[in-house]
Amino acid sequence: MKIFSAAILSLIFVLPASPQTFQHPGVLLDQPQLDFIKSQVAAKANPYYQEFQWAKASPYGALDYHLQGPPKDNIIDCGSHSNPNHGCREEDSDSSAAYLQSVLWTITGDHRYAQNTIDILNAYGHNLKGYTNSNAPLQAAWGASKWARTAEIIRYTNAGWKPEDIQAFAHMLTTVSLPLIEKGSGANGNWELSMIEGTIGIAVFTDNRPLFNHAVQMWHERVPAYFYYQPIDGDHPQPLPRTSGKTNWNGQTVFNASLSGVSQETCRDLGHTEFGIAATMNIATTAWIQGIDLLATEKDRLAAALEFNSALELGNPTPANLCSEPVHLSKVHATYVLGYNQLHNRLGIPLPTTLDFITKDVLTNPLPIDSGHTQVFEPLTHFSSPTPSPKNPTITKQR
Description:
Blueprint: H1 6-12, H2 31-42, H3 48-57, E1 75-78, E2 85-86, H4 88-108, H5 111-127, E3 130-132, H6 136-155, H7 163-181, H8 189-205, H9 209-226, H10 230-233, H11 270-289, H12 295-313, H13 337-346, H14 352-362, H15 378-382
Parallel strand pairs: 1-3
Antiparallel strand pairs: 1-2
Helix pairs in contact: 2-4, 4-5, 4-6, 5-6, 5-7, 6-7, 6-8, 7-8, 8-9, 8-11, 9-11, 11-12, 12-13, 12-14
């Protein structure tokens, strides 16, 4: 295993110079990407047009979507394994609907989608007072991840969201959500990666550059410890941050070249691994919009992770010494698209197994939403991208 000195680590994690102003909308989706999606749907180009049809027909995209929360006491109470569950699934549903309908608003120009979104944002912005119980930080992270990307779209697309409502929503994010997520977590990596995603989204929405830089720093600390990559890590994964040096790889004890790409949660199940992969790439996409290329140092590690876990998702033969029991497959199949877009379409890295998984599983899923947590119709929003990125001269390749 390669040991890094504190001096070397300080050089690795020095943040690149970044603009002092933020690109808006700029959480997961920017205006060029929104315009690109609209043009592809207008041309009836697939998979965009098919995904658009599925999105409109889904419960989350319904024009008569019924707001479900927050709870009467305005406190979301989430325990382990959703027990208790007071407002948790309701927030999952409401935030997914708000995000999807904000995207549908930009595609169609139908203000009913915008108004539905505004109604949902205002219900939480003016009323949500807190999260409680053991899963409170994770629920706050999932909510913040989607609330921020939704609020960015609605605020900066002339949807009619009133300034006083925007202020109330920003106050909710910074006083209710942020305190639970900004310091990260020593739990399984999907927790902290989701928390980082929520944090960076809040940073952009509130124009908070120090908070943005803090989220970037945490990403650089967690990603190498979540995805094992033998050429750099040797025969041991890197220590997990915020765990006093302890490691929990859910029974994985062998680390070699054939296992490059295994995640800290692969042997737990591929569902939680999908949460980690999605958050990792969502953060990188938001950072990219804002002029920070997180993939510059981690592209090979993340490419290995996508290929390794995609092979398992497809049911391919497992490598020797992987896990102490059979891998538990995911039943959702709603992610990997942002990763493929960033690593293959933009950087040209071959990812044939990832593409095979996306083609066979993700693109055939008429409801690519992971129980309402963070993954919402990725093929509609990120199957490909326009060129160039507004804050980067690097050309983003189209598929």
